[in-house]
Design a protein that fits this description.
There is one protein chain. By secondary structure, the chain is an alpha/beta fold. It is built from 13 helices and twelve strands. It starts with 11 loop residues before the first helix and ends with a helix. The chain binds S-adenosyl-L-homocysteine. S-adenosyl-L-homocysteine binds next to strand 8 and strand 10.
């Protein structure tokens, strides 16, 4: 006999099908979805408007898992980092950023990451496993509940641990679960998916009916530097990535964000700024510069503020919209590229760290 299916993995139409097979009405499926996703309940017992016999049936047929908060840390700037334990004991992190200017949840799509970007701590962990759609959506429903934001608007960025397009199906399913009107109803325009731009997956994404905002981690203006920084991008060329972005459906007045981590002396020269302007010419683009968040074992340094400003001005003078990302939560290692499960970091020896 196979394992029991998990209620938290079902999107609304699947839940309706499962419940109708048990003889329940479709409004029961909607009630159940609301309890789980918009109210964040973790047990069937509390779902008082579902008939007792249905709750009994459900608990016989299904499991129901929710990521459990193992730790919660607050930065001096108000950013909060949540450490979650999953049903199999694996751990992941999510971040709440209070005023950016609205509120933002940053969620993980994988435990660890296989992309191995050389400036990113998560990349050093390697991939532990993909998250399921229920685990991705689960971070959102638990954060919304804990922060009492279920009735409020918030933004969502898929910029935590992992590469969302490397876990395509689960990521897309989680987006549908989060967007469902009987759940938290977070609309696509408030969701941003950040990716290194795996080309076949990016092309597939372009064809989806339901599109989040797109952020592409560019980080370099030559193939040589990009391949060195993102080893898993070695089979693709920058020109092909940009060409794919040119064909990506971008809604009226929207733009694709190009993230560019600034590494002192590596990708922040005057020539880089000019090449960046040329690469993105004619694209509906905005550039988001991210001065490196430094960490032990990361073999790069953060450029000075003066250098960051100089680079930003040069890129802007090419006619591009530019912003510089403020690092939030650096004191609790919650900033970009700093999410790592500490045990995994301790597991690395100094030789391995030096080689990264
Ligand atoms: N896998 C996705 C999501 C990663 S996190 C992606 O690559 O886009 C979001 C952003 O933070 C990415 O642009 C990533 O490259 C960047 N980042 C990673 N490590 C960083 C660091 N140490 N300092 C600043 N930004 C970093």
């Amino acid at each position: 006999m196979g394992a029991k299916p998990d209620l938290a993995e079902l999107e609304p139409d699947e839940l309706e099908t499962e419940l109708s097979a048990l003889g329940a009405k479709s409004f029961h499926a909607r009630q159940l979805y609301r309890w789980v996703h918009s109210r964040g309940l973790e047990r069937l017992e509390g779902m008082t408007d579902l008939p007792q016999h249905l709750r009994n049936q459900l608990s016989r047929v299904f499991t129901f898992s929710t990521p459990q908060i193992a730790a919660r840390e607050r930065s001096v700037d108000g950013t909060e980092k949540f450490l979650f334990t999953l049903a199999d004991g694996k751990t992941i992190e999510s971040v709440f950023i209070p005023d950016t200017p609205s509120m933002t949840f940053c969620v993980s799509t994988q435990a660890g990451c296989a992309m191995r970007c050389r400036f990113c701590l998560t990349g050093q962990m390697g991939l532990t496993r993909h998250l399921t759609a229920g685990e991705i959506a689960g971070q959102v429903r638990v954060l919304a509940r804990e922060l009492k934001l279920q009735e409020r608007r918030f933004n969502l960025v898929f910029m935590g641990m992992g590469e969302p397009l490397h876990n395509y199906d689960a990521t897309m399913k989680s987006l549908r679960m989060i967007a469902a009107s009987q759940g938290l109803a977070v609309t696509p325009k408030r969701i941003t998916l950040s990716t290194i731009g795996i080309l076949p997956a990016l092309k597939r994404l372009a064809g989806e009916q339901w599109l989040p905002n797109l952020a592409v981690s560019l980080h370099a203006t030559t193939d040589e530097v990009r391949h060195a920084l993102i080893p898993t991008s070695r089979n693709q060329r920058l020109t092909d990535l940009i060409e794919t972005c040119r064909h990506f459906p971008v809604k009226h007045r929207d733009r694709i964000t190009f993230e560019y981590v600034l590494l002192d002396g590596v990708n922040d020269t005057a020539d880089d700024a000019v090449r960046l302007g040329k690469l993105l010419r004619g694209l509906r683009a905005k550039v988001n510069l991210i001065p490196l968040n430094e960490a032990p074992g990361i073999p790069f340094s953060r450029p000075s503020e003066q250098q960051v400003n100089r680079f930003a001005r040069s890129v802007a003078s090419c006619g591009l919209v530019v912003s510089v990302r403020k690092s939030r939560g650096r004191d609790i290692r919650a900033a970009c590229g700093q999410l790592i499960i500490e045990d995994e970091l301790r597991g690395l020896n100094t030789q391995q760290l030096a080689e990264m």
